[in-house]
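Run log // design_07
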């Protein structure tokens, strides 16, 4: 059923569910199989129209993603080496929307741009080895109601985030803040300033011992920016992007 505005649900750790005003469901970096950080009742989504994958690390890339795609019939946009791996797992090429960094495409009424991310990655193969080495990506999603979501994926802060602000004017940024493997709160605060966003949803923190960054630290680093709001969502919580000023 169509929504009045774009809805953002934090599934847990690094996974998100976006529902467009037209009722299309987009999953970003779904990891459900035996995931202790996503509520179990969310592990088997009834609807998925599009799946976006930023990179192949197993906390972003479900080991049973091919099965999810087959069950839901969702189209998929993935980091290119991740896409090649999914081909090898039997996912039909027709189910993909191939693209690469810097390109844009319109899918199901959403304008999607694949962006840079600075994060080395691989895929844990079924035989226990690591393969398909690659760099991660991010995504800009522009919805029909004017919501523009920047899903950074796992990344370091980088100066060209300023260009993302100039080109796409994101209204909400999904930023990792855990530190050690991605940006921490200091760098994420810098990213928010470069992106010129007024709303930040932090993720990739507090789930593993190494991920020590907190929303409170991020807020402290943004204390001079009184108009920037931090939305520290609990797993399963929904943010109505149409209600954001």
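design_07 sequence
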């Amino acid at each position: 059923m169509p929504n009045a505005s774009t809805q953002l649900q934090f599934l847990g750790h690094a996974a998100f569910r976006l529902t467009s005003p037209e009722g299309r469901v987009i999953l970003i970096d779904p990891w459900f199989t035996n995931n202790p950080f996503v509520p179990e009742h969310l592990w088997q989504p009834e609807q998925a129209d599009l799946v976006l994958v930023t990179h192949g690390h197993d906390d972003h890339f479900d080991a049973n993603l091919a099965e999810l795609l087959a069950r839901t019939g969702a189209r998929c946009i993935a980091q290119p080496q991740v896409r090649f791996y999914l081909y090898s797992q039997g996912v039909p090429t027709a189910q993909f929307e191939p693209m690469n960094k810097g390109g844009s495409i319109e899918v199901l009424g959403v304008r999607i741009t694949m962006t840079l991310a600075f994060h080395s990655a691989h895929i844990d193969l079924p035989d226990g080895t690591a393969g398909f080495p690659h760099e991660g990506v991010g995504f800009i999603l522009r919805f029909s109601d004017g919501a523009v979501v920047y899903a950074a994926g796992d990344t370091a802060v980088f100066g060209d985030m300023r260009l993302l602000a100039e080109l796409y004017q994101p209204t909400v940024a999904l930023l990792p803040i855990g530190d050690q493997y991605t940006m921490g709160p200091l760098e994420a605060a810098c990213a928010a300033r470069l992106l010129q966003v007024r709303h930040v949803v932090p993720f990739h923190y507090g789930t593993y011992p190494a991920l020590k960054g907190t929303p409170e630290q991020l807020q402290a680093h943004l204390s001079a920016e009184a108009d920037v709001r931090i939305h520290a969502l609990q797993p399963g919580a929904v943010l109505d992007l149409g209600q954001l000023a």
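The longest strand covers residues 110-124.
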